Amino acid sequence: MVLLKMKFTQQRRVRLAQGLWLLSWMAVLCGSFVFSLGVYLKIELLRRAEVMDNTEIHVVPNILMLVGLASIITNWIAGRVCQDSMDPNRFPRWRVFLLGWYAMAALICCLLVTVVVLSYALQGRLEESLKVGLRNGIRFYKDTDVPGRCFQKETIDRLQMEFRCCGNTNFRDWFEVQWVSSRYLDYTSKDIKDRIRSNIDGRYLLDGVPFSCCNPASPRPCLQYHLTDNNAHYSYEFQNEELNLYNRGCRQALIDYYMDLMNSTGPGVLSVIFIQMSVLLSLRYLQTSVEGAMAQEQPEGDSEGFLLEKGVKETLEEAKVKILLMLKYDQVDPSAAEGSPDAEKAPPTSS
Fold it and tell me: What's the rounded Cα separation, in Å, for the pair 51 and 141?
């Protein structure tokens, strides 16, 4: 059963080859776009690696970069096939490679679909990774003199200012950790001693936040300390007043940023899938129509082009057999080796 058979004249084959050549180079540009998208997303994830607990989300940019490179190579080959399709002496050399080309093009489409699915499926993993990473970042904020954590304070401060956020969930997360280094505490002060003694873990806790939580758009000067004490500031009510701090937590800010970034790739990736499928189907029609004309020994005569010469099941089984034969091509046949001239000249082994 021949699937989707079409009639092709010489002029129609030439037009198909020309159109496919343009489409294949458009697919090369799309492959470059996908690769660049993967590199950009990878860089953005690496920039926040210090506030992420794992790297599972990196599978998305890794696949994008891999697929982008594969798309560039396969579609460049498709362009070369189009150039040789009208030459009876040059086109037959591509017949051996086209089966592998179709498999690679189909794999690229599948991987692109996988990227779109993973962009949504990994949101929960991304949230958990940021939750743990930001919690550790806030906890180690004060360790500016500890090797491996020296830049944690700078990272958190820049993050909160860039994304206009404060804390992990909100600014109250800073109330639960000692974010002021002990080297900057005067232990002769009664207030500091009382605060440390009042905590069961001996930590110096404050109802305050770092300067990077302050919102510069607020008309009121920044309030960093005694945020829960209504008497500490003039005309101030902790429960009712809109604080001059960023109210959004950094975890939600980063999730929104990365999910917007990955979701925005969806339409672009789907467009690349459409173009890649168009190249795959068009090349199949071009191949079968050219081979049909060559089989009739009339390269400029009419021919038929189709997608599958047989049913889907029969085609898959036939492709499996061809692949197995290709894998066995380089293997030496033991019986042939025994009958070779070298085997006959070999001296018999003594018993």
Answer: 11
Location of structure tokens 């799309």 = 30
Residue range 76-97, pLDDT digits in tens:
998 888 888 877 778 778 877 8
CB atoms within 10 A of CB 320: 10
Token pair of 32, please?
């470059």
Q: Which helix (H) or strand (E) covers residue 102, if one does? A: helix 95-121
| Residues recorded for the chain | 351
CB 210 within 8 A of CB 184: no
Two tokens at 224?
């960093």
CA distance 205 to 203: 6
Angle between helices 10-47 and 59-84 (to 10 degrees): 160
Distance between CA atoms of residues 281 and 283, nearest Å: 5
pTM for the model = 0.75
Half-sphere exposure of 190 (CA within 13 A, CB side): 0
Within a 10 A sphere around the Cβ of 145, how many other Cβ atoms? 9
Q: At what angle do helices 95-121 and 123-139 cross, to 10 degrees?
A: 60
What torsion, rounded to 10 degrees, do the Cα atoms 236, 242, 246, 251 define? Answer: 120
Quick check: 60 and 122 in contact, CB under 8 A? yes
